[in-house]
């Protein structure tokens, strides 16, 4: 018998077994990684689905609460972004001024306590991350202003207006919801950077002069926490 040939065959078999074992380990690791990624994807999908359901239900409840007021107030509710939008600038503020007009105060007195009653209810209150009061202007500033001057003029004007609105609406709340609301509500002046129409006609510029109440839920925070957890 050729012992050298037998040793070579034994060595070849051992090498083959080792390669097969390594391949099996690699496949198992790959499967484990894929299962983990699938689980993370499923978790994110569940959060996204819950967010859509939550957003849809908030919209339905707001629509039901204010369906008889929207037309009279010159307001609308954006379902996709959960924005309650006031789009009649003539009743909001005087030109170039930040004081809330009495007509808009009358609307806000009715609107805001009912709005907060919906959002601070048992179903939603733990999922509302922020209520943003946003002020928007059209593109133009005062006479002979450059584009940059008009931008900063409108930035200050929109900021002053949202602070005026926020100050007024907080005064309309009962003590039992005041603290919850104050901790979540912010005033945000955005100048002319987020138009909803071209600034090419007076009718379109009028649409861009508006006040919005925007809801942010905790869905983004939940996804961020999941991503951080997945890194550890």
In short:
The chain crosses the membrane at residues 18-37. Residues 80-219 form the OmpA-like domain. Helices cover 61% and strands 13% of the residues.
Structure characterization notes:
By secondary structure, the protein is an alpha+beta fold. The protein has one domain: OmpA-like domain (60s Ribosomal Protein L30, Chain: A). It has 8 helices and 5 strands. The chain has a 5-stranded mixed beta sheet. Strand 1 and strand 2 form a beta hairpin. The two termini are 58 Å apart. This is Chemotaxis protein MotB. The chain crosses the membrane at residues 18-37. It comes from Polaribacter butkevichii. Keywords: Membrane, Transmembrane, Transmembrane helix.
Annotate the secondary structure layout.
Blueprint: H1 3-66, H2 70-73, E1 75-78, E2 83-86, H3 89-92, H4 102-119, E3 128-136, H5 147-170, H6 175-182, E4 185-189, H7 202-208, E5 210-217, H8 219-231
Parallel strand pairs: 3-4
Antiparallel strand pairs: 1-2, 2-5, 3-5
Helix pairs in contact: 1-4, 1-8
